[in-house]
Write a structure and sequence with these properties.
By secondary structure, this protein is an alpha+beta fold. The protein has a domain of 130 residues: TATA-Binding Protein. The protein contains four helices and seven strands, in the order H-E-E-H-E-E-E-E-E-H-H. Strands 1, 2, 3, 4, 5, 6 and 7 form a seven-stranded antiparallel sheet that branches. Helix 2 packs across helix 3. The chain is elongated, with a radius of gyration of 24 Å.
């Protein structure tokens, strides 16, 4: 009886230890948007993660199945816990019942290097504590979506197309005027333009 209880408690402890280091693989989903093809959405996803500083991992990605994974973006630190690495996974799926409508789901995982002896050496790195980065997931998801949505679309047009009228929209496409700073950053100078 005591041996059975001991074995059961050891098994439960082993299961708890296995699940504690698992990452949450859910991600931010887009509302769904029109696009010419899934391949074009996949290419927009590739461009977006490159713009965010990630390198696509084509060995673990599949344009045909709509899964894009990045390589780990690693930033080592001088102290245990200060080094991190991040990875992006994007899944492109067709919206059921809507021809040429697609949805992207973005998952970004960050892990910490907990190695104490050599935290700045990638060979000895010990990656633990996987956490999601919902802000970066949302940014990547919305940038892919905005590649296909007209930035000047009205809330009425968006609602008519089945989009959330509150989804991202660029209001002002004109660049802000540049003002020259005065000496030591004391305010703008009103100087005539240089010709």
């Amino acid at each position: 009886m005591q041996l059975g209880t001991l074995l059961l408690s050891l098994a439960l402890l082993a299961l708890a230890g296995c699940s504690s280091g698992r990452a949450d693989t859910t991600g931010q989903k887009s509302d769904g948007f029109p696009a010419p093809s899934q391949d074009m959405v996949y290419q927009a996803a590739v461009r977006t993660i490159i713009e965010q500083g990630f390198a696509p991992n084509y060995d673990e990605s599949s344009e045909r199945s709509g899964v894009l994974k990045s390589r780990w973006k690693t930033q080592l630190g001088p102290f245990s816990g200060s080094g991190t690495r991040e990875r992006v996974t994007i899944t492109v799926t067709e919206v059921a019942g809507y021809q040429s409508y697609y949805r992207v789901e973005t998952n970004v995982i960050r892990e910490q290097n907990v190695n104490i002896k050599n935290p700045s050496d990638p060979v000895f790195a010990e990656w633990e504590n996987p956490t999601r980065l919902p802000e970066l997931e949302n940014l990547i998801t919305r940038r892919i979506e905005m590649s296909f949505l007209p930035s000047t679309a009205s809330p009425e047009w968006r609602a008519g197309q089945g989009f959330d009228p509150r989804s991202p929209r660029l209001e002002n496409l004109d660049p802000p005027e540049k003002k020259q700073e005065g000496p030591l950053g004391l305010g703008p100078l009103d100087l005539p333009p240089i010709r």
